[in-house]
Amino acid sequence: MALNEEIPRLRDLLPASGRMKTRIVTNPRQMEVIKAEFPKPWKKSHPISINFDLWQDLSIAQRDLLFLRAAAWIETVQPLRVDVYQGVAAAGVLGFLVELSQFDAIGVLTAGGLTAFAGAQIWRNSRGNQAEVAADEAAIKVAQRRGYAEATAAQELLAAIETAVRLEGRSNLSFAELTRTQNLRAIANLSASPASK
Question: Cα torsion at 39, 42, 44, 50 (round to 10°)?
Answer without folding.
Answer: -30
